[in-house]
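Lab manual, section 2.4: Encoding a predicted structure.

Procedure: take the sequence of the chain (300 residues), apply the prediction step described in section 2.3, and record the output as structure tokens. A sample record is shown.
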Amino acid sequence: MSQMVIHQRSDHALLGIALILAANLFFSFIDTGAKWLAVASIPALQLAFMRYIGHFVISTSLIGSGGFHLERFITPHLPLVILRAVMLMLATILNFWAVRYLPLTLTSTILFSSPIIICLLSWPLLGERVGPIRWVAILIGFAGVVIAIRPFDESFHWAMIISLVGAVCFALYSLLTRQLAGKASVDVMQFYTGAIGSLCLLPVAIWQWQSPETISDWLIMISLGVFGWAGHQLLTRAHGFAPASTLMPFGYSFILYLSVWSYVIFAYLPDKWNLIGGALIVVSGILIWMRELQRSAPHT
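Recorded output:
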């Protein structure tokens, strides 16, 4: 019987890993599509609106499939749910703005400083103790960020700061998601994610609107919202099959995917500083992950 239980847990963990790999593949499609359209001079705020309107339409259809009753859209944690949606919207806007000017490999590297930022902010915001190992990881990670963006080098671009602020917003979104886990339903959070982004960005999108010139560009723009909703669905389901401690290392597949698309579509290879900085950020994230595993392990 025990062997059967272990086998079932292993199968569930493998399914969770497969889902998070698929989720990151969808997220990589969003960034690649956003850069493709940004090069075609489609405004970042218009792209962000398309990312959220598709999400809003799908999530509204699902949450309303059993009838549009008001109680299905209400949660006692509504302020935090809305703040979470705002943080993700800001992260998306800043990321779409940055990819216009920066390689996908660099924006993805900067984005993956968010676990380091989460670790740093968990002390003042959540009251979690940050021990020596995690402080070392934080310092290594920020050294990686400095090496990747090289703020005092002539190659430095102001969009790197935009990308870094986006990583901070994404870290705050992740912390709020952690706080809301088990308190607000996934469908409600998905609905407000789409609704807040769509409503806030609609006026600016209308004002700045530029129609894509080709059918393929139209399809790419429409797909931003579909991939956004699907990626978050897969990500949520992945955490239902395996704990975050198991899934965390596979999150770095996002950088791998974007490295491939960056080379195949935009003929770009990262330079040595991007690689060194990215490696340090990954090492920092793995250190934080290993420390979390130790903390969550049962003590005998």
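Check your result against the sample. The mean pLDDT is 82.
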